[in-house]
Design brief:
This protein has 242 residues and is α/β, with parallel strands linked by helices. 26% of the residues lie in helices and 15% in strands. It contains 6 helices and 9 strands. The strands form 2 sheets. It has a 7-stranded mixed β-sheet with strand order 5-4-3-6-7-9-8, sandwiched between helices. A two-stranded antiparallel ribbon has the order 1-2. Strand 1 and strand 2 form a beta hairpin. Helix 5 runs parallel beside helix 6. S-adenosyl-L-methionine-dependent protein-lysine N-methyltransferase that methylates elongation factor 1-alpha. Keywords: Cytoplasm, Methyltransferase, Transferase. It is found in: Cytoplasm. Its EC number is 2.1.1.-. Belongs to the class I-like SAM-binding methyltransferase superfamily. EFM5 family.
Length: 242
């Protein structure tokens, strides 16, 4: 669900409008969003991307803010998807290397777009994603282990984006990750707020990478990508500890 506003999705400067004593003026961020909207209404610009580039874009259902859904921007989705695909390389067959995406449908969609044969399971609360058939599993983090038994310790890579930035939510998602992952073997990637840094280290021994995830909705919270393995030069590397 790539989620919660993650405390509050709209940074409240009058919902993007800066008000002085006289005439209200739009903030730079709001002006940019308005310009983008008008450009879409007026058709593609002269220097629009060629068709082959546009084919790389992935279509997703509309974000539902009531479910705290905020999709990754394209660069974030592609970067994380390429990292997952890189981690599958030691396997002779990517279809045998199982990936679980917990509440991150954007990543699922990009992975399947890059490699249709990769084995990916999406665990998601929003039932609109039932369109993915057998690769969709309904998931409610409040019931972290109410999942099909065949999923237990079955995944080589587990990527999670907890829906909320609360201690309780991360603890329950951690239970799900433990249920899905192969003890001592699985690669774990966690996308969540910087505020969860200490909890991620305490619960799963995860460390932050230099790469900073971003969302299409330009959320105000600082997000990070944490891993249980050293990515080397990828993902900006592990952030050096003080």
């Amino acid at each position: 669900m790539e989620e919660e506003v993650k405390n509050n999705p709209i940074t409240n400067s009058q919902n993007g409008v800066v008000v002085d004593d006289d005439t209200p003026t739009l903030s730079l961020e709001t002006l940019a969003a308005l310009k983008e909207f008008l450009a879409e209404q007026n058709g593609p610009p002269v220097n629009a991307e060629p068709e082959e580039e546009k084919e790389k874009e992935v279509a997703l259902v509309t974000e539902d803010w009531r479910l705290s859904q905020f999709w990754y921007d394209r660069d974030t989705a592609e970067t994380v998807a390429h990292e997952v695909l890189t981690l599958t390389q030691p396997s002779h067959s990517q279809s045998d290397f199982r990936v679980a995406c917990i509440a991150c449908p954007t990543l699922y969609a990009y992975l399947k777009n890059f490699n249709h044969d990769i084995s990916v399971q999406l665990l998601e609360y929003d039932k609109r994603f039932e369109q993915y058939g057998s690769e969709f599993t309904f998931y409610d983090y409040n019931q972290p282990e109410e999942l099909p038994l065949e999923m237990k310790h079955a995944f080589h890579i587990v990527v999670a984006d907890p829906p909320y930035l609360s201690k309780e939510c991360l603890e329950k998602v951690t239970q799900t990750i433990s249920f899905l992952s192969r003890p001592g073997e699985s690669y774990l990637l966690l996308l969540t707020g910087e505020v969860q840094r200490d909890r991620a280290a305490e619960l799963m021994s995860l460390r932050p990478c230099g790469f900073r995830p971003r969302h299409s909705s330009k959320l105000g919270n600082e997000f990070r990508l944490f891993t249980n393995y050293d990515p080397g030069n990828r993902l900006g590397g592990w952030e050096q500890e003080d």
